[in-house]
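[User] I wish I could look at a protein chain and see how it folds. I have put the entry right below:
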Amino acid sequence: MLISISSLIMEGCSFERTDHARRYDEEEEEEIVEVTETSETFKATPTPTPAPTIDPSSDPEKVRNTIAPAAASRTDIYSIADTDWARQNAPLFSVSTPEQFAGVVKYVNEESNGESVDIYLMADLDLDQYSWLPMNDFSGNIHGQGHTISNIHLTEPQQGHNGIIGVNGGPIGIFDLRVENAEVIGGRYAAILVGEGYMAGFENVYVSGSVTSDGEFTGALLGRCSPGMVYDSCSMDVMVNGQQAQFHSFTEENESHADDYANEIYTLTLAPDNTVSRSNENYTARNLTWRIIYNGEIVLERNAENELSYRYFNDSPGTYTIYLTEYNSQFGGYVRVSNTVEYTIP
């Protein structure tokens, strides 16, 4: 079993949180909300008020209105937080109860100062009676160890960055975890696992539930993320805005349509030593970027605005595909703006 996200990310990968955050800030007219609150034997509890049945074909506004009474009856996750336990065990948490998990959430958001943490689930957790608050600026790993988090509810339609993790502040990994019957209702960057994530990998994860949002970047496991995220043995049964999700993330779904907007403005040539050179066109690209794909997975995105040539440093055996991209506001993401060159190292 993997115990660190670092083993899932190729050496030299440039998915650095600050770089991507900065680049995305430049892309959008609306400023991304900065998260200022930074950072997880069950007890017998009263039977919760059953949540109303929701017609999957309902529009997001109707869904929010239907769920509001049930959401109001739940207890804020912070109110049960065992903060003393969390402080005593940081940064390695072996979580057996909702109170301990809530303590981890509060610790990550208010006291961790970006410190990397490891969360190990020691039991299944049913969170049906609580209103979840996302962990923000989260860095570290969640090790499910085959356990299940069920009935997690996050209903903040006016809030951005919704999920078990709202936004990460460093590399994250989620392993051997089931999340069942999750309910997320939020604004921009909404998903069940991570609202907005970079430098992340997922192994042996199953997720079911629903995500509802009329904001941008709504996905199943993730909302907005780096291209080329690692999903190993992951599956899902998630309704996103009333439709069965076919992609792990908004970004992945968006990328599937990118070729519809491709425009080969630049010409790339490949030298015998695998250096790629581009033409110097009289064209002002928006965030011109080299994209390097290794054996079908994006491993590097590098600013190309001031580079007429580039040689990728990795000489491992395999097939390398390289092209240029730029941000396209009509598409809402990065699209190819050059021909594609490819080489294979035996």
Summary: The first helix runs from residue 17 to 27. The chain has five helices and 23 strands. The chain has two domains: 36-255, 258-345.
